[in-house]
Amino acid sequence: MLSCPPLRTQQVACCPAVHEGGFLGEIRIMALILNILSPRRLGKLIANTRVRHHSSLTTELINNMDKKATWDRFYTENSKATNFKNFEWFFGFDAIRDFILPMLHSQHNSDVLHVLDMGCGTSALGPCIYRYSPWPVHVTCADISAIAVRLMQEHTETKALQPQNTSSKLDFLELDCTHLHKHFGSESLDLILDKGTIDALLRSREGGAKASQVLKQCLKVLRDSGSLLQFSDEDPDARMLWLEKEGQEPGMMVADVGVQEVGELRGVTYYCYQVTAHPVAQ
């Protein structure tokens, strides 16, 4: 694994109690929860008295984070704000740019690197890689929510982002990531970034099987030299075992998993799990 600097500290504004009623109030509580806490810490905040009267619908939303309809509603409500603002799960690009850019450098050859931000939502991660990579990249930002994809397309067009490398390309794609192989084909991507997508599936009531399917799909579409970088706050003792178990195809493929402590942010320690796959020797 590459050496990774500590996370850059980000200031977090104190959030007042939410007073809106109905779904708008619930969705803002969900946004607050997701933006401050990792998926495995959600339950503790739901029990807090400040949001107790919202807890029924909020819990329902969180339990259904594997559903397209949940995220369409989430981004529809968030889009009603006057000014667009990127929504970042865990942290933004600035916190990990000194990790991602060296990773791109290590994989760079004469060809354009194909990068996927899986479950991008309205994160600025993909556009920032496109903007700041000195090496040519083709960045695809994919999400199951058509609303999120549309918002990002509109925002990017408004900002008229320019890449550092003129050969770089940026696309936005509506895609269920359980079907990555159907869209991209085998061994077509150099780097896949997962910042909260599989965590959200694992936290959902019916998302466990989907999380496993997404992981297997990632390993199928990665080139031999490619990697999946998964950012999470789950302890390595648990997450590495899950990745190794679910990433294997008995008799065909095994997953190699490495872990690097990224740093601490808002009292939470984050890790980067690097997953590569190779065929079983016959």
From TrEMBL:
PANTHER family under this entry? CITRATE SYNTHASE-LYSINE N-METHYLTRANSFERASE CSKMT, MITOCHONDRIAL (PTHR12176:SF83), SAM-DEPENDENT METHYLTRANSFERASE SUPERFAMILY PROTEIN (PTHR12176)
Keywords on record:
Methyltransferase, Mitochondrion, S-adenosyl-L-methionine, Transferase, Transit peptide
Q: Which organism is it from?
A: Oncorhynchus mykiss
| Biological role | Protein-lysine methyltransferase that selectively trimethylates citrate synthase (CS) in mitochondria. Seems to conduct trimethylation in a highly distributive manner rather than in a processive manner, and thus introduces a single methyl group per binding event.
Designated name of the protein: Citrate synthase-lysine N-methyltransferase CSKMT, mitochondrial
Domain Methyltransferase, first and last residues per copy:
112-229
Q: Which GO terms describe its cellular component?
A: mitochondrion
- Write down the chemical reaction(s) this protein catalyses: N(6)-methyl-L-lysyl-[citrate synthase] + S-adenosyl-L-methionine = N(6),N(6)-dimethyl-L-lysyl-[citrate synthase] + S-adenosyl-L-homocysteine + H(+); N(6),N(6)-dimethyl-L-lysyl-[citrate synthase] + S-adenosyl-L-methionine = N(6),N(6),N(6)-trimethyl-L-lysyl-[citrate synthase] + S-adenosyl-L-homocysteine + H(+); L-lysyl-[citrate synthase] + S-adenosyl-L-methionine = N(6)-methyl-L-lysyl-[citrate synthase] + S-adenosyl-L-homocysteine + H(+)
The entry's localization annotation reads: Mitochondrion
Q: Which InterPro entries match?
A: Lys/N-term_MeTrsfase_sf, Methyltranfer_dom, SAM-dependent_MTases_sf
Lineage, highest ranks first: Eukaryota, Metazoa, Chordata, Craniata, Vertebrata
Pfam families registered for this protein in UniProt: Methyltransf_31
Q: Which GO terms describe its molecular function?
A: methyltransferase activity
Q: Which GO terms describe its biological process?
A: methylation
Concerning its family, UniProt says: Belongs to the methyltransferase superfamily.
